[in-house]
Amino acid sequence: QVQLQESGPGLVKPSQTLSLTCTVSGGSITTNYYYWSWIRQAPGKGLEWMGAIAYSGSLYDSPSLKSRTSISRDTAKNQFTLQLSSVTPEDTAVYYCNTFIYWGQGTQATVSS
């Protein structure tokens, strides 16, 4: 069974870059037809898909966040990462990594000075 675990700094200052890592176990991020996504949920709001990286390394961006997001992977570590630049308090949310029915537990990221 695939397991995902997010990790990140927890607190980021406005204008900085938020960097999150998803560590995958129980399966390889290069397994055919797997797509690895970042999804967030801000307080009182619904889920927002932020982007994904495919098993092939192809990238998929959310049009609303494209200019601020960068997704990459480290196949040796079986991890994929999200960088969100120029953060504001509106980026405060629980951030999840996901593939198919598998979700990480989420990591809280708060943007505050």
Walk me through the structure.
- Strand 5 and strand 6 (59-61) form a beta hairpin.
- Strands 2, 4, 5, 6, 9, 10 and 11 form a 7-stranded mixed β-sheet that branches.
- With 113 residues, the protein is mainly beta.
- The chain contains no helices and 11 strands.
Question: What is this structure, in a nutshell?
Answer:
The chain is mainly beta and 113 residues long.
List the helices and strands and how they pair.
Elements: E1 3-7, E2 11-12, E3 18-25, E4 35-41, E5 47-54, E6 59-61, E7 69-74, E8 79-84, E9 93-99, E10 102-103, E11 107-111
Parallel strand pairs: 2-11
Antiparallel strand pairs: 1-3, 3-8, 4-5, 4-9, 5-6, 7-8, 9-10, 9-11
Structural class: mainly beta
Rg, please? 13 Å
Please count the beta strands (DSSP E, at least 2 residues each): 11
Query: What fraction strand?
Result: over 45%
Major beta sheet summary:
7 strands, mixed
The coarse silhouette is globular
Distance between the termini: 39 Å
Q: Average pLDDT value?
A: 96
Give start-end ranges of low-pLDDT stretches.
none
Number of helices: 0
One letter per element, helices H and strands E, the order comes to EEEEEEEEEEE
Can you give the helix content as a percent range? under 10%
